[in-house]
Amino acid sequence: MSMYTLAKELFPPTGIERVVRCNFVRPDVLNVIVAKSSVLEIYSFVEPLQADLLPRLDLVASYRLNGIITSLGVIRTSSSGQHGLDSVLVSFKDAKMSLLEWSFSNHCIVTVSIHYYERDDYKQEFLNNTHPTEIRVDPSRRCAVLAFYGDRLAVLPFKQDEITMGEDDDVSKKWPYMPSYVMSLSDIDIRIKNVIDMVFLYDFFEPTLAILFSPQQTWTGRLAVRKDTCSLVVVSLDITHKMYPIIYSIDHLPYDCTKIIAVPKPVGGLLVVSANALIHLDQGSTAMGVAVNGYAPMVTDFPLERKLQDLDIALEGSEHVFLAPDQILFTLRSGDMYLFELQQEGRSLSGFKIEKVGTSMQTSCKCSLVPGYYFVGSRYADSMLIKYSNKDEVKKKKKTPVSINAMDLENELYGQDIEEIDQETDKTKDEIESAMESGESKWQFEICDTLTNTGPIVSMDIGQRASTEAHSEFAPQHELVAATGSGQNGALVVFQRNVRPNVVRSTDALAGATCLWTVYCRKEIFFEGVSQFESRSAGIEEGAEEVYDKLLVISKDNFTLVLATGDELRQLPNSQFYVEGPTVAVGSLLEDTRIVQVYAGGVRILNADCRITKIVPIGEHLSIVAASIVDPYVLLQLHDGSAMILKGDMANKDVQILSQPSILNGVPINSCCIYADTLSSMLTIKEAPTMASLRSFASSAKKHANAKPSSSRPRKRTKKAETRVMDEVELDLYGPEPGDEDEDESESEEEEKVDNDIKMESDLLFDVNMEGAQSKAKHDMANPEGQSVQATHWCIIYRSDGALEIYHLPDFKEVFFFPHFDLLPEVLFDAPSHQDTKPAGHAHEITEMIMVNMGTKLRKEPYLIARSYRGNIAVYKTYQHFPKVEKNVGKSVDPSERLAIRFRRMPLEIVAREKLEDDDGAGDMDEDSQAAIEREIRIQEKRRLRKAKNLIPFSGVAGYEGVFCLGSAPLWLMSSGRGLPRAHPMICDGRIVCFTKFNNINCKNGFITTNANGNMRISQLPTKDIHYDMPWPIRKVHLKKAVRHIKYHPTSQTYVTVTAVPDPFVVKDENNVAVHDASTATATGAATETTNGAAPVSASTTNDATDAKPVAPKPMHTGAGFRPSSERQTLELVSPVTWETVDKYELQEYEIVTSIETVSLESTQDASGRKKFIAVGTSFLRGEDSTMRGTIYIFDIIDVVPEPDNPQTDHKLKLLYSEEVKGSVTAMAALNGYLLTCVGTKVVVRSFEDNETLTGIAFIDVQIYVTSVKVVKNTIMLADAYKSVWFVGFQDEPTKLVMLGKDYNPMEAMNVSYLIENQTLHIVVADSEKNIRLLQYAPFNVQSFSGQKLICRGDYHVGSQVQTTINLPKIVLSGSDEGISHLTVCGTLDGGLCMITPIPEKTSKRLALLTTQIVNGIQHSAGLNPRAYRLLQSKDRLNANPVKSILDGDLLFEFVALAANRQKEMTKQIGTGVDRVMDDLAAISVAADHL
User: Fold this and answer.
1) Distance from C-alpha of 224 to C-alpha of 1145, rounded to nearest angstrom
2) Other beta carbons less than 10 A from residue 1003's beta carbon
């Protein structure tokens, strides 16, 4: 029986592999673009106006591409350059690249072109592009090249404004590039092959490319025969005539060269980086190199300066960034940071000065931003925005923020997120300051912002959430805990799909509540006959009770209850609230001096003593169904579709009905609200800056940057840094300081030399200074830092014909109109002429709409949120639009008064399928029956009395502002203000019908919810170490050491982890005695002293006394100074309550854990006959000349008396049994109460008898190396590192193992898992080429040869390396006819999660047709083909065609964000309905919702 499956990404990859900086979104804002596997993210670099706030990175947009990003390049084309913007070239694993630009009108990326080079005549012997494709861009942006298929080079020329390139074709003029062409590198020089790296050079008239290659390959073992095999060629690319003359070349470079770096003026030339040396080459000067360790003279004959070889640093795998034109910061693979300074004499390089400036994490990419800042991306740790400065300059400026000394940067790098780091900084402030004084390095670094990374996930397990709450009414909750990071960046990441509130108190006394409100109101105080109101700020500073909410108003079906909040909730006697019926809305007005109560018949205004000050009736035959209260306005929506608006007067504390404009009584209103703009984001066209003004300001900022040459020495940059404090506005008004003018005159010659380089706008940080432009952008566009700004008020109306209208208050002038909001399109734009206003017929879809600010106190952004009748949420974000003023829009419309904003729909993969209360029992009766008519009358009467409100805005809940969505699957819509909005579902035990924020002395910054069963809970949002700005709420626990494995023990509810720390490797003789070499030890000691000292050392070609080393000469090496190291691993028992280690078991020297499992073995200690144990398999790594041995450990976790001050230490690890075996124990599992172990090439089943000894009872020989094993009942699935998968059966009596079938196709299987659907079992295999394959044991299939061959049932390219998998039972929606199913969750090395799940046959066929519609019907980012991306990738020729049966869930969920008319059109093409497809997607979205 076949199984239908679907693959979907649960959590996106987070490890950053590539980064560039450019002006991509706006000409006055610096953007940082990062690549995370197949995800492209765009950030804005923001420098706050407040001096006490650090710069940050704000996420602008994120895109999932259908391809693996291999490199990024920044260019400025003729199309984007006219707006002062850059374009981005993106290359992919296949031989293709896409040109992307930013669309102002739609606020998204657009694909200008895609260049595809996967032709058969280019591939030759390549089945796929095994060589990574790399883009290199000319610094003058004249062309870009793409290297692929070994020796192929694609050249993409770009049009220059001043050069027409002889084109006369009108069609070709609309493209910003000229036709690309492909050439072979052997055409340039026949010796060019095995290309290592290439880069464009500065300061050449034609694009000049330097190519590093190895014509003859060698390796370390053949250095005695062949060394210095690398060569370098510098080629001039004549794009017009397609000629490539060689400018110069050099041979006999070290064999271990890894990359080349182009050096700008004033030094020029290029640097060749090898593992053991750094070599500078230039056309007009002699090559100069410096050895950085003792291996250099052994592996190369290239002339090198050896004065710095005592540093003992290795440059392979290092990343670099320019701090200045002559200063390069290298971060080594170990994390050490070294500053290389290029010293000059005249125009030639005279020497190198190398200084260790600190320790960071292992990096994968770096990028310079503005002077003083750079970005570090990493696949192994959190990526960071770093601020660097010279300590001498910092002391002069006397900066108040605590800076981190470079030598002690680890405390910050491996600590909490930057937002939570304040407490740690307070604790270590004295230590940091003392270290700053004692350290000799003059450089210091400070972490400004952090991008959380959850990868690489090397192991994971699911366990029950530990809770210390007194109220635990919810069902058992689970969490996914993953071992991530590398080295000192090791951490545990806790994945939680649902928000889990901390319940403070619960009660059932308030059953029947339909709505809740909390109110705060200031009391009126009479002092000497003068009426005054108590101050809010005074109460906050003193921590008085007045800052908390005073009243809790509860509306029920027939009455209203008013409670006073304090130490306890009590009913308020003698209040003058309207309590005879339900309440529509409650809020505060007139700066919290009055309380407004809206009910069906009118509005009551009360003071802080709950006494009526005014009653506003609305009419005898009218009824209020909804209200929006925003000080000083109250907007009332009536049952007949009209509206009324009230405004409060602060002077006389009165509320009056405004004169009702005709627009409130026109087309019936479905939903309306009032928005108070405190961020200055709702700007009209005449108020907002134009694109021309932004472009001119950005160019003026560059001129200011050019006025002070960025290529000056650090001593000159000191003065520049001091003058940066002057505001740009003052600079425009009063001009530069006199000292600056003198400096400019004295350096005029140097300016002329450097001016050309600055105009090139290279990727170096010192070319562009955007600080002033960004400050201007903040003033022009918004006030993101939350400063007090006079609020403007706007009325947003959604009508029954589907139109969205925005009016300015109080004059009710229309400023925005969109006719088809009911379609929920991607972009909402202003249509002032009211054209195309014919209703689309989807107005019933949207039942509620609201516009609010979301974010935190420091950073907020406006969002428009709509809810459909089935509970789906659409979130729109405002963005500034630069319109072209239309002249023929009508005489009555002034274009300058329209809003200069648009709305962009944000991607949310939340699919809600709320059960309609109005549909209860509707399916059992005829539409024309009398019962149906009476039911419809009741529904209309209910709607007349009160309109259901499911979008509840909140503020102050754990410091967040956002919207809470009621329903059976409640949602938190929230944002950190620094990125995209996130939708986090909340775990609950019933439909949530009421919500309100609640700030009380017993529950600070909390909230109150009530479910359909009448249970009211007062809760708080957990915030400790939890990141809500990620797609899932996650918690990252830093351990500061590598974590290799993690397993959950359900009996003790604890986790067992395997941690590793580096351990020096000591050579021992046959008697296990350490061998000491006195001479080597002496050299090593000298090297260690040199390396650890912070004093800089230098190498020079001159013998001048001024160039002498500042430190004493060190003895020359008699041997290499590096010493090997091994890992010392430890088993640690971790409590999930505090995530602290409660017990340890240290393994032997050179003993590595290769497998660990929680196994259920036969035991007489438990009544069930089985007990959970921890089985550990290890290997001893002593080198190639030692026989491999391993050990099997059996641990039990026992209960003990905890320590007095730590109740979590109530468990201990107890070693029950250990056995040394001949071979490595690579995998283990539990098998019917026995222990299955894979030792070497044997699989042995062992019985744990009397908890004392392991006895082998059955075995089978396998092939090479078993990487993973899974057991289902009495069947075993084995994954081999080279021989794919074996399927083995176990027979108990007599005990034996029998091979049932295997996969005969060669495959490097890294992990094995399974899928179950009723009686069908599929084997899931993850290979080393980022694929997942499904295999089935089908003995009745003719092609399986009676089951001996496993049949392939599906294959799917994940795009990320799957390292670990877990199996979970599939969750099905209520009412579904699906049987028992199990799915697989995969953890990848990129930090992401994905799942493979079985789906019903009808669903699969329906979604397969929908996949075809989506592939052909929508535009995909970067122009990539989703089907081609998911095809099986293999470096070997396949014996059979791929089986494309696994559906792409990521592609299918793009259907959710489509406009309603597009959804209806697609589903009509496949013969189904939108609701049916949405139900299918909802069932998939909850399949793995255990967390």
Assistant:
1) 46
2) 20
Out of 489-503, 788-802, 890-904, 1031-1045, which region has the weakest mean confidence (pLDDT)?
A: 890-904
959: CB partners within 8 A, 6+ apart: 856, 857, 1005, 1023
SS3 1003: strand
Q: What is the pLDDT of residue 1105?
A: 37
One-letter amino acid at 1490 equals H
Q: How far is Cα 484 from Cα 1015, in angstroms, rounded to an integer?
A: 39
Lowest model confidence (mean pLDDT) among 503-507, 823-827, 1300-1304: 503-507
* CA nearest neighbour of 549 among 534, 565, 530: 565
What's the rounded Cα separation, in Å, for the pair 1200 and 1190?
30
Q: Assess whether the previous peptide bond of 810 is cis (omega < 30° from 0).
A: yes
Three-state DSSP class for residue 1348: coil
Beta bridge partners of 1011: 992
CB 1362 within 8 A of CB 1395: no
Instruction: Give me 1420's structure tokens.
Output: 């995909």
What are phi and psi for residue 767, nearest 5 degrees?
Answer: -85, -30
Exposure class string for 1265-1301: b at 16+ Cβ within 10 A, else e: bbbbbbbeeebbbbbbbebbbbbbebeeeeeebeebb
Rg of the chain in Å (alpha carbons): 35
Which pLDDT score is estimated for 1369? 93
What DSSP state is assigned to residue 1025?
T
Distance between first and last Cα of the chain: 31
User: Other C-beta atoms within 10 Å of 1422: how many?
Assistant: 21
What is the per-residue DSSP string for 109-160?
Answer: EEEEEEEE---HHHHTT-SS--SPPEEEE-TTSSEEEEEETTTEEEEEEB-B
402 within 8 A of 429, measured Cβ to Cβ: yes
- Residue 986 · residue 1032 · CB < 8 Å: no
Q: How many Å apart are CA 1310 and CA 1279, to the nearest integer? A: 7
Strand locations in 1252-1371 (E): 1253-1261, 1266-1272, 1275-1280, 1284-1291, 1296-1302, 1309-1317, 1320-1327, 1331-1336, 1351-1357, 1362-1369
What's the confidence (pLDDT) of residue 697? 67
pLDDT of 1095 above 50: no
d(Cα 842, Cα 855) in Å, to the nearest integer? 31
Query: 186: helix, coil or strand?
Result: helix
pLDDT bin (cut points 50, 70, 90) of residue 1106 is very low
Q: Do 1332 and 1433 meet the contact criterion of CB atoms below 8 Å apart?
A: no
> If DSSP codes are grouped into helix, strand and coil, which group holds residue 1403?
helix
Per-residue pLDDT reduced to its tens digit, 797-838: 999 888 999 999 888 899 999 999 999 999 999 988 777 677
The proportion of the chain whose per-residue pLDDT surpasses 70, expressed as a percent, equals: 81
Residues 640 and 618: their CA atoms lie apart, in Å, by 13
| Degrees to nearest 5, angle at CA 579 with 578 and 583 | 75
Amino acid (1-letter code) at residue 449 = D
Label the pairing between strands 1446-1448 and 4-11.
Answer: parallel
Residue in the structure block whose two tokens are 């491996």 = 414
* C-beta separation of 200 from 271 below 8 A: no
Pick the closest to residue 647 from 664, 629, 663, 662 (CA basis). 629
Other beta carbons within 10 angstroms of residue 613's beta carbon come to 15
Question: pLDDT (tens digit, 9 = 90+) per residue, 902-941?
Answer: 999 998 888 887 765 544 444 444 445 677 677 666 665 6
